[in-house]
Amino acid sequence: MESFILSAAQGFNLKCTKSKVYKDKFGHVCVTARGPVRIQRAGARRGQGYAARGCPAAILFQHEIKEHLHKSGFVVDRFLISSQGVPYFRTEADGDIYTACAVQTGPNIDFTDGNAFLNVVAHVAKMHHALADADIAHQPTKRAKAGDESDAAKLLETLATLRKKLLKAGKFSDFDMLFLRGYEMFAPHITAFGDNAFDTKYICHNLLKEENIYRQGGQIALTNFGEAAQMHHLHDLAYIIKRYIKAKPQETMPIGKIVEEYAANCPLPLDDALFRRILLYPDKFIKVTMDYYSKKRSFAPNTYITRMQECLRAGTVLAEGL
Questions:
Q1: How is the chain split into domains, by residue range?
Q2: Distances (CA, A) of 318 to 55, 60, 229, 259, 313
Q3: Per residue in 23-72, pLDDT tens?
Q4: CATH class for the domain made up of 114-148+175-321
Q5: Looking at the domain that runs over 2-102, which CATH code has it been given?
Q6: Which residues of the chain fall below pLDDT 70?
Q7: pTM of this prediction?
Q8: Are 147 and 216 in contact (CB under 8 A)?
């Protein structure tokens, strides 16, 4: 794999040797005269959004987002322009597509630190405000988070059928019991979720977790725009609140305080009813459930039990906080 990375590095006018290439959690890093540069092959890793599926249009979409934010004073991991004049390099041999970004340095933001988290919320709000005025020519191939969420009725029917089969069998594993509890808790929120939650007038990052948010000096830096898409800006706010709860701070601040901090830094419309539907939509519960029952299992692995317990805990905190 490193030989392909070295070939791609040349496409970005970078010089490095095999001894100066190493892996990190996001890809391969080349140590160059321009500093460390992370090079990724499109489609090499799952869960990296449309750019990782080898779609040049989506890479261009992300590039325009990053350039707009950079010009607006935000610190982001910008794409390097290749010798082909675009923010990606396509190899001649097999047509593989690579992207390259300068590696960001600095500690990740600790979401258990309430003040640091509120600073991030304010930063995200300002980012949404800046992107609301962005003139983005390129579009992603499809909006993010489509699929199950775009048809709540069909999804609920699938879960209800699963629940009915379990009740008919009459024998429950530990995971089955947790799923049944979760179904009673989350089903109303799946029903309430609607297509109007996919307003595409705005742009969301969609991966605002601790690993993608850095502190560089006195500034906040954002990375990993692989899931950026046109969506309602409240999806990002809901996502970051869920990540905050998952971090398990010693004393969870009221959700209302988080929303107030966001609203104070972003004049975009904040529909309380819509935000409640987006925030309470149990995406993790659905993912864990589908993942577990998609395979025949003779017992419930502890990892799945722990993940489902976390879904129930987070759902309780969110519901009680609204």
A1: 2-102, 114-148+175-321
A2: 36, 36, 25, 13, 9
A3: 988 889 999 988 999 998 876 444 444 344 458 888 999 999 999 999 99
A4: alpha beta
A5: 3.30.200.20
A6: 1, 43-54, 140-150, 195-196, 199
A7: 0.89
A8: no
